[in-house]
Amino acid sequence: MSKQKRPTWVGPTAKLVERIYGSSSPASVFLTKARTLVHDAKQTKPQIDPMALAAALNVRVEERKMALDGFLEKDADGTFLVVLSRDAGAQRKRFTLCHELAHTFFFDDLARSRAFRREDEYDPEEERLCNLAAAEMLMPFAMFNRDLLKLKETDGITPNTIFKLMDRYGVSLQAVSNRVTWILRDSACILWRSDGNAINSQWATPSTMRRIVLCQTGQTSVEKACSSPGRLFSAPDSFYGNDQRLIRRWTASWQMRSGQIFSVLTRKQAGRVDCHDTRPNASSSTTPPKEPTRHCEFEQQVLAFD
Questions:
Q1: CATH number, span 142-300
Q2: Which of 4, 138, 140, 142 is most buried by a 10 A CB count?
Q3: Cα angle vertex 166, ends 165, 171, to 5°?
Q4: Phi, psi of 172, rounded to the nearest 5 degrees
């Protein structure tokens, strides 16, 4: 398995952070600030209280009825205000608040540094860095890793494992999935939607699995979960990877109340593939596939919270 190169940060926020901290990765700087904030706010167990984090930074928080999830502004007296959407769900509010708190880390430096960013310039890398920091605030690595490994020892890694972590940390399904697949590099999480006879991926993590296609045989855990709500199914399912090669992963699947199927894939078992696919130009080979290289760097994952 080849080691992936560290992401190159080229945006104005990254340039500013590198100017201040030298050779340190911008992501490492944001993560360190997030961990320090959690410590300073005396948050020692889940669920982390974002309001306590805001208080530690002397940031005021208000809710208003608006279309945006939230925004950050600085008052005339120099204090920060985070405004959240009153109608947003609890998980989204928690993430949005932490995301906006991360924007305060270098707010004044960026405002003064016209050489790095114009006043009206949007920096997508800054949004990614704030997402990374928000994830660290809500799911501190040491805390989350301990809980994950404990659940793995007792329950294995299944959809139920992910659901328990969602409840414990008060974050979304996709946020927990991103965190789990970063820690357990041999795993993947996929949300499926049934559309007639087809079952298509809605999202997947890590990013290398985003274009994965289920090899439908009528016997996969995904198909069984699709036809039997409320039951957990496990099987060595087969998939087409991004490079169109067939891969096999031990898969545990569960149909959610929304009708979507959530699957957790691991390398627990691999073997020969017997897949009869009706797609045009589909391969019918039963040769054991060569495993594609896994690339899963947390700095490259953009957390999405639903």
A1: 3.30.450
A2: 138
A3: 130
A4: -80, 165
